[in-house]
TrEMBL record, chains A, B:
Protein family according to the UniProt entry: Belongs to the copper/topaquinone oxidase family.
Domain Copper amine oxidase catalytic: 236-646
Co-factor: note: Contains 1 topaquinone per subunit.
Protein name: Amine oxidase
Organism this protein belongs to: Amniculicola lignicola CBS 123094
């Protein structure tokens, strides 16, 4: 049987429709609310066989089949169903007892309406005596477990703001209001609190009249409301007269010796598969596994602010529809994605990933000082970018591929800070006052990049190398200048830390493949993003729920089910379901003689996870909308190839690059300026 | 009297010529060898007065005068002479006893000739039985003090290589030969050694026949010799239909609210002065102060490989003549520099700095999820780039200025690894075999960026902030999620270390200016480049000579004479002349009651120095020419402004950016591809 879709292609709309039909037909009497219909990626074992044949040139290797994972509420009960797409049959139907689906925007709108429509809420708002014309905005947030409520029911926190300018895009985060409400699964307002607004203040239920001196005019970002816009930036355009250098067929990209497949799902958003360079296998899968944004304000109910933006919200469902010339410059290829409506119809999400090229300055250069001859190449990068909006914040996620076989993964945080009210003149040690009465609480952004390596095969290892001074005084080091590298292969699953002071380098290697020149195993090294790990106390719910935040580098044995570092179900989770618990359970269940074997990661199919991020103690310069804060992680070959893989890149010439010389008194410019001044 | 030149302008050619005349006239009977005629920047005290008046709008503030610093050998004696350029008079004439000028390329060529012409050298080379047609190349290196010779005389180490291909740009570093010679000031070969070529081997004087199986063909980079060049990279051009966004008058640049002056000298190369944003003073001077490249091979004479690429070689004199469309893409403004010939003539160095703009993706974005309206701005950067060649290596030094008032300083290391011979099949723990018989020894690149701040004035402080968990269990932190920032102002001169685990942030602040909204001192934070510090033993010459390599961040009281972190004269220096010694001496000389006051750096005119770099244990992918290794340092406002300084950047539109949509089956492309295949 010929399959139309590659096994790693996301589900096509007709597949989504078919799966919805299958589910409907199995539950004819149920009230159905679809949340997810997504590809269940084939087991890796099957995929390896498929990819091996595919790359060996077979036209139609035995297809591992198309299976869909469905999240659906059947009359209120949350099910995870696996459907054989081709056969049109349910394979597994499991009720996820005590679990909650990711954020449901339809439900959230109902929560908002219920909250704002509640009589007690209305009374509290009236008591605040807000400024004339203020429109109250309710911002629903998922509930970060704090031990104060039963988590088996969905609870939504409703934070209050107001919009003052008469414009739909006015920045309401500039006017946080000091009340908060809890809304139950059944859309009932169960609690209303006043928020603390000065240090040490505890929650009480007496609303305080809104302090009108907090009204200010410096917090707008929308062009309609922020008029004094600089006119000095002249246009800069990228032209590619012969088109881009990449070729794309479906979800497969080939560019400058790289080949890979782009995937996309509701949760991780963009994923990359079967990444190869010059025909050699490098990575089976690259993806953002999870992210956690815990807030530092210790005062109740702020500890409930702690967002799993993948597990709770979904990087896929929140992906922006990228606009040509706005989000992307140059020759742009867009990838669309397909999600599902609550009634099971395929839902197109256009332009969720853009693919284009950028120039990145010098790739390599050498001038022979004897002849004066310079040889220069410029670095071209392939960019795969996706941008998500999660309420106030946006995140830009970018993979860059280099001609030198390097990969960089960049996260940019932008958007608007989450805010809280503060009394004028007050300060707290866990937040920055960014406008009158506006506190931007400290918080962390912790990302976990999942790196599933396949360096020349699937049996890989993780090594830790440090650079250490040779003993001195010692006859082998008479001048005290010697240093050596010390190399250790990690034998068992573990969480490990960075140390720039010892130049600790994490290398993914294949011990079965020795580089014939260097005599060392072929490998790729991680260029980490040095970051502070999770600050919450190890016994806190924050810590237990985001175990990946405890260490910068983790290595585990591959498992088809271990994709999400904080666990498969993060919404109101109780913790101990993440990467540390997987490791601990395996170690405990294999105590005794086979302990080491079952948790061994040496020369096995392994996964490496890198936790990084920022301790974001806001600056006023992050307000009212934050210039991108960049975090970058790299993967670079280390004794993998036989030389610089970018050695053969074309020499940089003016003939091709057509730069323009700017004279100090460029007549054309002077003319234009003179004209502009008239 | 009206001065033609701004006090910070580098010396103009007519000034250089005049100064040379003045020096000649004072030494009519001497044999003159000019090494340097450069601007002696005015004392900061005078410059502050000048700049204050200049920025207050005075047309011709009292000029602090033009003074030239001259390095000249008068009949073999090394002098430092200060000349009042306008008056044409010598102010100071000092003999620099026991000091040596930076590398003299004329002399180095004489060294090469003397070495290769030496009979014993010839005999040693003959005994090696090199391959037919091999051309022996002698590479002279400065001598890193190792205690084995008297350093009052200049000594040059001559390393041997051979060129096999019949091409002037063939890569001779691919064939290191295992002899080395020392050449004296008087051009005599004083010692010849055979180099060790396996672990533990010590130097002896029996040359070993060249192992012909080391001859290989995989180490060429020049396009004439490396023919299999990829043809897949299609052109990418930058067009700026209205020209660049910057305006340049002489050495003054204004761009997107930034103003600054570009300086250039033989030693530091590019320097930046009087850097302001939106009229507010930020930095008095930014410059690379020094760099040190010590090698890890402990075997004599390799410990003599330790290059001060600024102090010994000069980032200015080794600056490349940048080529339009090769080194720089877009609309490029070049700055020239003027050096001096050995006979005192002005020597033009064209295109040593390029100035242009690049697009850097998203600057900020927010989508209001309620309205679906996205507002996006793109980030434009101003780039100031210079590239230097120091024998085998090149360094790219780039300042990036952002519209959000951020500055980034990037160093890219590229070029060719310094190599040494190794026996086939051998390995050493302090080097990588990159080609048959070619060892690329481990080494470090340590850079020191000198940051002379002037944040809203010249009385600044350095603060250290860490993010620390609140006590738990504790009533103020009931859920264990609270964390606060702890802020300490550094009171006395010191060397300090990085700590990503505590999110240690170094902030330069002005304690006299409190941000009215945040209630905290205005400041800029350092985004450090996390790096291993110097590995050489503290008692080694390497350590004593490069004191800045001991700590990542230093803070000192400003002194007009403290520009170079390893001392003013690094060539064959004996050490203890650098930043640690300055601090120590001041502390010792002020022991007692006024100790703290004299070394106080709180609310004083201070300088902050950041040491960073790479422990470069070569990869084979760095061979035969190394793809750029990037190191980036940032400076970002932190509660300096009243909001995001890039808030007013124009909204990104397709109308201005003119991107091109790539269809999956773009007919034009398909046509071109079909054509290409015919």
């Amino acid at each position: 049987m010929a399959y139309r879709h590659h096994p790693l292609d996301p589900l096509a709309p007709e597949e989504i429709a078919k799966v919805a039909d299958v589910v409907r037909s199995t539950a004819p009497n149920e009230n159905l609310l679809f949340r997810v219909i997504t590809l269940a990626e084939p087991p890796k074992r099957d995929m390896i066989a498929y990819l091996d044949l595919e790359h060996a040139g077979y036209n139609e290797p035995a297809h591992p089949g198309r299976v869909a994972k469905v999240h659906v509420y059947l009359t209120g009960q949350f099910h995870e169903i696996l459907v054989d797409v081709t056969a049109g049959k349910v394979i597994v139907d499991e009720i996820l007892e005590g679990r909650h689906s990711h954020v449901d925007s339809v439900y959230m709108k109902q929560v908002e309406a219920a909250c704002i429509g509640d009589d007690r809420v209305q009374a509290q708002v009236r008591a605040l005596k807000l400024p004339e014309g203020a429109k109250v905005i309710v911002e629903p947030w998922t509930y970060a477990t704090d031990g104060m409520n039963d988590m088996s029911e969905r609870i939504t926190m409703c934070w209050f703001y107001m919009r003052l300018a008469d414009h739909a895009d006015a920045n309401y985060y500039a006017y946080p209001i000091d009340i908060v409400a809890e809304v139950s699964e059944e859309l009932k307002v169960t609690k209303i609190h006043r928020l603390p607004s000065s240090v040490g203040e505890t929650v009480n239920n007496d609303p305080k009249e809104y302090d009108h001196s907090k009204v200010h005019s410096s917090s707008e970002y929308h062009p309609d409301l922020q008029t004094d816009r600089r006119q000095t930036t002249r246009p800069l355009q990228v032209i590619q007269p012969e088109g881009p250098s990449f070729e794309i067929q479906g979800n497969s990209i080939s560019w400058e010796k790289w080949t890979m497949r782009v995937g996309f799902n509701y949760r991780e958003g963009m994923t990359l598969h079967d990444v190869r360079y010059d025909g050699r296998s490098l990575f089976y899968r690259l993806s953002l596994s999870e992210m956690f944004v815990p807030y530092a304000d210790p005062r109740s109910p702020y500890p409930r602010k702690g967002a799993f933006d993948l597990g709770n919200d979904g990087a896929g469902v929140n992906a922006n529809n990228l606009k040509l010339g706005c989000d992307c410059l140059g020759h742009i290829k867009y990838f669309d994605a397909w999600h599902v409506t609550s009634s099971g119809e395929p839902l197109k999400m256009p332009n969720v990933v853009c693919c284009h090229e950028v120039d990145d300055g010098i790739l390599w250069k050498h001038t022979n000082f004897r002849t004066g001859n310079a040889v220069v190449t410029r670095s071209r990068l392939l960019v795969l970018q996706t941008i998500i909006t999660v309420s106030n914040y946006e995140y830009v996620f970018i993979f860059y591929f280099g001609q030198d076989a390097s990969i960089h993964y960049e996260v940019r945080a932008t958007g608007i800070l989450s805010t809280a009210p503060i009394d004028l003149g007050d300060k707290v040690p866990y937040g920055t006052v960014v406008a009158p009465g506006v506190l931007a609480p400290y918080h962390q952004h912790l990302f976990c990049l999942r790196i599933d390596p396949a360096l020349d095969g699937h049996q890989n290892s993780l090594a830790v190398e440090e650079s250490v001074p040779m003993p001195f005084p010692h006859e082998s080091n008479p001048f005290g200048v010697g240093y050596v590298s010390e190399f250790k292969v990690v034998t068992n699953e573990a969480g490990l830390d960075l140390n720039h002071q010892t130049n600790r380098v994490f290398k993914i290697i294949n011990e079965n493949k020795i580089n014939p020149t260097t005599g060392t195993p072929v490998g790729f090294k991680l260029l980490p993003c040095y970051s502070q790990m999770l600050l919450a106390h190890p016994s806190s719910y924050h810590s237990k729920r985001s175990e990946f935040g405890a260490h910068a580098v983790w290595v585990t044995r591959y498992s088809d089910s271990e994709i999400f570092a904080a666990g498969a179900h993060t919404m109101q989770s109780l913790g101990e379901e993440g990467i540390a618990s997987w490791i601990k359970r395996r170690q405990q269940s294999h105590k005794g003689q086979d302990n080491l074997e079952k948790t061994s990661v040496r020369n096995e199919d392994i996964v490496v996870w890198h936790t990084f991020g920022s301790t974001h103690n806001p600056r006023i310069e992050d307000w009212p909308v934050m210039p991108c804060e960049k975090m970058v992680v790299g993967l670079k070959p280390v004794n993998f190839f036989d030389r610089n893989p970018g050695l053969d890149v074309g020499i940089s010439t003016q003939e091709r690059n057509k730069s323009v010389l700017v004279g100090e008194k460029d007549p054309e410019l002077v003319g234009k300026e003179a004209k502009a001044k008239l």
